[in-house]
Design brief:
Elements: H1 15-36, H2 41-52, E1 56-57, H3 58-65, H4 69-81, E2 85-89, E3 97-101, H5 103-123, H6 129-146
Antiparallel strand pairs: 1-3, 2-3
Helix pairs in contact: 1-5, 2-5
């Protein structure tokens, strides 16, 4: 049996593990609030993305929501059935479908959006404004360079 090291191990300093763990810990806290609002996490992601720009394609939504298109299609079917979104053919390309949030969808996401802003402030409470901006900028750069 190998000896336990006194220093940091591979995982303790492995970027992918650190990103996954940070995301899991921070998201887990907030996802409880999403569920309390009567939304699944994928539904939350769809509605908040549409709030930033209604009329997105399924492909655009898949990228923003971190879902594969077949999984997203099932979520969108449920959301359409529940009156949270509508689908409309693209005006310039009938093969493309655009997704729009309904008044019910916008109302359902309003409370969780305020909770998300509050949660973010809580998460970043120990950081100065410059540190928080640097953290977000570093993550945006990592996403842009790896995608």
């Amino acid at each position: 049996m190998p000896a336990v090291s006194d220093g940091p191990g591979f995982v303790d300093d492995y970027l992918l593990y650190l990103l996954a763990r940070a995301s899991h810990q921070v998201s887990r806290q907030f996802h409880r609030q999403v569920k309390t609002a009567g939304l699944s996490v994928p539904e939350w992601r769809v509605l908040v993305t549409l709030n930033d720009g209604d009329g997105r394609t399924v492909g655009e939504l898949a990228a923003f929501t971190l879902l594969e298109q077949p999984t997203l299609t099932k979520v969108l079917n449920r959301m359409a059935r529940d009156g949270l979104i509508t689908r409309e053919a693209d005006a310039t390309d009938a093969r493309r479908v655009r997704i729009y949030s309904t008044a019910a969808g916008r109302a359902r996401v309003a409370g969780p959006m305020q909770a998300a802003k509050s949660h973010e402030r809580q998460v970043l409470k120990g950081y100065g404004a410059d540190e928080a901006r640097a953290l977000k900028d570093a993550l945006k750069t990592l996403i842009a360079r790896s995608g």
